[in-house]
Amino acid sequence: MLIGDIEINPTKIICLGLNYKDHIEETRPGQALPTEPVLFTKSLNCLIQNKEPIVYPKMLYENRKYNRVDYEVELAFIIKDKCKNVSIEDAYDHILGYTIFNDVTARKMQIKDYASNKPWFRSKSLDTFGPIGPKIVDTNTISDPHNLKIELKLNGEIKQSSNTKNLLFNVPEILHYICKFFTMEPGDIIATGTPSGISPIKPGDLIEATIEKIGTLSNPVILEGE
What we know:
Elements: E1 2-3, E2 6-7, E3 13-17, H1 21-27, E4 38-42, E5 47-48, E6 54-56, H2 58-61, E7 69-70, E8 73-79, E9 95-102, E10 105-106, H3 107-115, H4 121-124, E11 130-138, E12 149-154, E13 157-163, H5 171-181, E14 189-191, E15 206-211, E16 215-223
Parallel strand pairs: 3-14, 5-11, 6-16
Antiparallel strand pairs: 1-2, 3-4, 7-10, 8-9, 8-14, 9-11, 12-13, 12-15, 15-16
């Protein structure tokens, strides 16, 4: 897929859950902070570009059991080359650049799956539930990804506002940890987690996710079939 003017062909999307303290407090009050990164995957069918619509599935919209879908603005980074067992010191050598990722989530489905000890996978991987963009900014332009303002607006109203300095696990730590388990390929996407401020979306909404030095990822929400 094309992100800005850079073509990537990811083989996987690996995401972090619970990587901002305030998000843990709003979703799981009283839970201890993780001692290592919490990982999950999203499937490639979820990826869409800047300005493409997020499609709200009718099966969720018409079912009170599942009819909540949320946005989650996240800093993401793109892998530059095939790598495994990357040290913290060498992590930046394997990063192509940074972009914005919206980890759209079927929240009621996720909560029900979590409560019954099922994986988060289906709630995270519905079609169009992974907007990414609007461009990839290289590591020369963003030498330190840990002091960037991160924000999300829903229909012009600020809903999420934080800074990447609040990440519990930073970018080198994340890549080092992931590469213990998985060989990363060029174009693979790693999303670093979302701060507090999640809330539901509905068809007709406009979501604008912004990260300092990267830009704004903008996506309308439409109902499936319309």
